[in-house]
TrEMBL record:
InterPro entries: HotDog_dom_sf. It holds the Pfam family 4HBT_2. It comes from Natrialba asiatica (strain ATCC 700177 / DSM 12278 / JCM 9576 / FERM P-10747 / NBRC 102637 / 172P1). This is Thioesterase. It comes from the Archaea.
């Protein structure tokens, strides 16, 4: 669940532009993950963003620790190249 979102708008994105979003894990706490985003339109930065996300227990609706398997995957892949999604 996203509990915090910060978005910094820089320039408009037009419908005919190619948009790329790069995402990286910027912080890993006991209860939260912080992600940083860079949104580019035709190669130029159009916006940057940061989210803080937590895991919620479906039965109790309370925040729970980041699962160990997630934590392992993040630590193993954190230093790899930034992932881009078209």
């Amino acid at each position: 669940m996203i509990i915090e979102l910060h978005l910094e708008y820089k320039t408009p994105i037009k419908p005919d532009q190619r948009v790329e979003v790069a995402v990286r894990i910027d912080g890993l706490g006991e209860l939260s993950i912080t992600k940083a985003y860079e949104i580019r339109a035709d190669g130029d930065v159009a916006a940057t963003a940061r989210t803080t996300q937590v895991v919620i227990d479906g039965e109790t609706s309370s925040t729970v620790s980041i699962p160990d398997e997630w934590r392992r995957w993040i630590k193993e892949n954190r230093d790899s190249d930034t992932d881009s999604v078209d």
